[in-house]
Specification:
- The protein is an alpha/beta fold.
- It folds into two domains: about 1-115, Rossmann fold, CATH 3.40.50.720; about 125-225, Regulator of K+ conductance, C-terminal domain (Alpha-Beta Plaits, 2-Layer Sandwich), CATH 3.30.70.1450.
- The chain contains nine helices and eleven strands.
- It has helices spanning about 10-20, 35-40, 55-60, 75-90, 100-110, 120-130, 160-165, 165-170, 215-225, and strands at about 1-5, 25-30, 45-50, 65-70, 95, 115, 135-140, 145-150, 175-185, 190-195, 210-215.
- Strands 3-2-1-4-5-6 form a six-stranded parallel β-sheet, with helices on both faces. It has a five-stranded antiparallel β-sheet with strand order 7-8-11-9-10.
- Helix 5 (about 100-110) links the parallel strand 5 and strand 6.
- The longest helix has 14 residues, at about 120-130.
- The radius of gyration is 22 Å and the shape is elongated.
- It comes from Sphingobacterium wenxiniae.
Length: about 230
């Protein structure tokens, strides 16, 4: 797939590099030539341009892109101007980065209904981890439901999911288990993680495994507190 990422700050560059590593064709643009040069070997295509310049933006293959992501963060004015320009050029899929409530309101007024709030999401995930030491990571699916990565409660170690009966007891669904192990790469010991695949009734909950569970946060917390 082909993506265009506009803005190569910390978020934009990370997104563009990851998409490239996943095998997608990525065109990334930023007005800072130094940043563009630094990333030219990590991203499919990089270009230095002012993304609020209509002629410059029109030179990009907008119609061929599966999505154009406006990743500009610090300069909200440039972000909104860039988004408005893309809207005028009838780009089929625009994803905007939001850093303030006002910016979100303006995007909604422009009928941009697909946006990301990376700082807020990261803060929410950190708050979840700080609130409960047994939560390793989290992802909010909706106001009610979340996906949480947590340690296997001690009382269920050695049991199968069928015997543990977590769905009936806590109204949560175990999606998979994750194993953590150490490996040596270039003489350096690093920690690796590997999911065991879709969990089934015969999946055994082993010590030091992590559970990836889906459900209402209150029910997931009851499971965590059952240790």
């Amino acid at each position: 797939m082909k993506y265009i990422v506009l803005g190569l700050g910390h978020f934009g560059r990370s997104l563009a590099v990851h998409l490239t590593e996943q095998g997608h064709e990525v065109i990334a643009a930023d007005k800072n030539l130094v940043i563009v040069e630094q990333l030219k070997d990590k991203i499919t295509h990089t270009v230095a341009m002012d993304t609020t310049d209509r002629e410059a933006v029109m030179s990009l293959p907008l119609k061929d892109a599966n999505a154009v992501i406006v990743a500009i963060g610090e300069d909200e004015g440039a972000s909104l101007l860039t988004t408005a320009l893309l809207k005028q050029l009838q780009v089929k899929r625009i994803i905007g980065r939001v850093v303030s409530d006002l910016q979100k309101t303006v995007l909604e007024a422009m009928q941009i209904d697909e946006y990301i709030m990376p700082e807020e999401e990261a803060a929410e995930r950190l708050a979840m981890r700080l609130d409960n030491a047994d939560i390793i990571d989290s992802f909010k699916v909706s106001d009610r439901y979340s996906i949480i990565e947590t340690r296997v409660p001690n009382k269920y170690v050695g049991m199968t999911l069928k015997d543990a009966n977590l769905t009936n007891k806590y109204k949560v669904i175990v999606l998979t288990t994750v194993k953590s192990y150490e490996t040596e790469v270039n003489g350096k010991i690093t920690k690796q993680q590997e999911a065991s695949g879709i969990a089934g009734s015969e999946t055994v909950l082993e010590e030091n495994d992590w559970l990836v569970v889906f459900g209402e946060l209150s029910n997931i917390k009851r499971l965590i507190q059952s240790s």
